[in-house]
Structures are given as C-alpha cells and as structure tokens.
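Worked problem 6 (solution included).
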Amino acid sequence: MAQVFLRKNEERRIKNGHLWVFSNEFGKITGNAENGDIVELFESNGNPLGSGFYNKNSLIGVRLFHPSFNGDFGEYASERIAGAYSLRKALYPNRNSFRLVFSESDYLPGLIIDKFNDSYVLQVYSAGMEKNIDAIVNVLKNLMNAQTIFTHNESYFRKLEGLSDEDKVYFGGIKEEIIDDGKLKYRINFNETQKTGFFFDQCDNREFIEKLVKDKSVLDAFCNSGGFGMHAAHAGAGQVTFVDASDAEINNVKINYELNNLTAEKEFIKADVFDFLEKSISENKKFDVVMLDPPAFAKSRKSLPSAIKGYIKLNRLALEIVNENGFLVTSSCSYHLKENDFTEAVSLAAAKSGRKIQQIYFNGASLDHPRIPAMEETSYLKFAIFKIS
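Solution. The predicted structure is:
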C-alpha cells in the first residue's frame, strides 16, 4: 500500500476530524498509487493519520475513511452499510425509503445511496468508490436484498474527480416506485426526476411546517415533487399553489396530490419562480405562507457572490407577497453558502422589501443525513422560517 506524507504542520485539521486531504498539503509519496487506490496517510514525522482513497487528479487528494485499513473493502462496506441501515430504521421505524448512505458522513467517501423500497439509487463521485463499485453492489444485493441497483450520477462532481459522466444499471431493471415519507405517498419515476429521484433531506422540515398552515393560503415554489405543499394540504391548509419550471415535476405533483386524496383547494402552475413572484407582485396576489426550496445557486466558491445576490432577490420578491403576520419558509442547499451568509441574505431581502422579520426556526437536513462536526462540507442545507410583519 502506498504511503502519503503530509507537509510539515498540515496535520491539525485532519487530527481534528476532517476527512479530506488536499493535494497541496502533500509532502512525499512512497510506493505506486493509482487513482482510486487505498493509501496510508502520515504526518511529516511519520505518525499515522489513517487510510483513504487517493486521486492525483483531484484537489481532494485523499478521502480518509478508516484509522488503519488493511482488510477487504467489501467486508468493510458491508459493516458500514449495515450500521447505516440500523441507524435509519431507528430514526424512521415506519419508513422503507430514506437516504441510506451519506458519503463521508457514513465513512463511505464519495458514495450516496438512496433507498426506495427495494430499489437503490447510487451517486458515485470519488475515484476510490468508482473502483470499488462492484463490492457496493454485492453488499446491496446480499445484505439488503436489493431488486434494482443503478446510478444517477451528477456530472459536476464526477468531473472534479476526473471521472466520466455515465449512468449504469447494475442489477434488475429501473421501475417506478411508490414511496412514503411517514405520512404521504410519492410516485417516483426515475426517468423524469432530478438527482437520485427524491429530496429526502427536507423530509423532517416538510413535517415541521404543518404547525403553521391550518386554514392558510400557501405557495410551494420550486415545488419539485410537491412535498412541502402536500404536507400543508395534509395539515389543513385552505389553499395551496404549486409552482415549478418543469412540466414533468408539475405533472408528478398532480399525480402525488391525487395519490394522497388531499382535499385542499389547489393550483398547479408551470412557470419560472422569479417570473411568477414578479407577476404576483404586479397583481397584488399574496399568500399567508410562502415556501422556497430552490436548487443550489452556488456550485463553487467562485460563484458565491452572484449566488448571494440571487438569494437576496428571491427572498425579497417572496417577502413582498407574504400577508401580514404570515410566514416565509426558505432554504439553501448550497454548501458554499454558510449559515451566517444565508440569514444575512434574508435580512437584506427584508430590508429591501420593507418587511420586519422574526426567525422562529432553523434546521439543516433530515436525520438520515448525519454530519461530521469537523467537516462543514457535510452540513450543506439551511432551512429557516420567519414570521413576517
């Protein structure tokens, strides 16, 4: 096994629990290491720091996952996935669909596994996990009794690792699934959906908003599968408007709404959310609760300044159509945008719109997305609720 030695004084962050070693922190490398190989990491003085996946083509040169690995990766993956499943079932005993593996947070770096009943959708974005994908597939077949296993990779992250952009069916055939989040059902058509097929990270937050919506008019913007709006309808909202720019998503929300026998008055609108908000302002159309769950505006640190402007504009427009004593429910899934930047963007939006706000709730991703305290990269979702006056 090849050995990677850090430059002098580069070990503190790793000793504190961070799992990424950047290539500019390398000192010397002994032995032959190919992309995706497991290597041993050492301080400059020779003290061991752990084992991880090596990639000479990536800024993240080593992704640590074990204090001192020298065994069979398939056995290791089986132990980690079994533990991850046990945790999720303890947290969500009545659900069969959730995020089973959350990459570094489950010490399987560069691997996302979402479980949809007996279908398993993977995102692979590290060279090491790509090299060991057959071991992962075997674990899912033998341990989890998977009937379908396929990848739905996001090309941006794979390109950072020097990996080609491709999806593959490893076992079974892609089939439509009907899942539930503990209260509501969703049809998942994997040929139409984004990323792995469903945003499990907002499940706990969708349930929380039920406290605020009784008899209220609600806007679910960037509605995707309709989770926020449907939970509002389930909790007794008087009227729910769903807005998304995707025809496929709007059609899917219609199906999901009927699937759950929801009775609240509803409206489904295919439109760009910014355009919809501006039109609502011009028509003086308002809502008691406005919910925003946009895609990531900042894919990289370089794009952060323009992303912040986007969040300010989005929340300013939304605030202008919230009724007095209503609520703004707003999110960001850009991990480059930190919590303080996010809340400051909403504060600036409030100042620009002339609204007074009180933050009454803040949360991150759902419990099936554990985080590593020393790794801010594992804590990407910001979710906040503001009372408006």
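Discussion: The longest helix spans residues 73-91.
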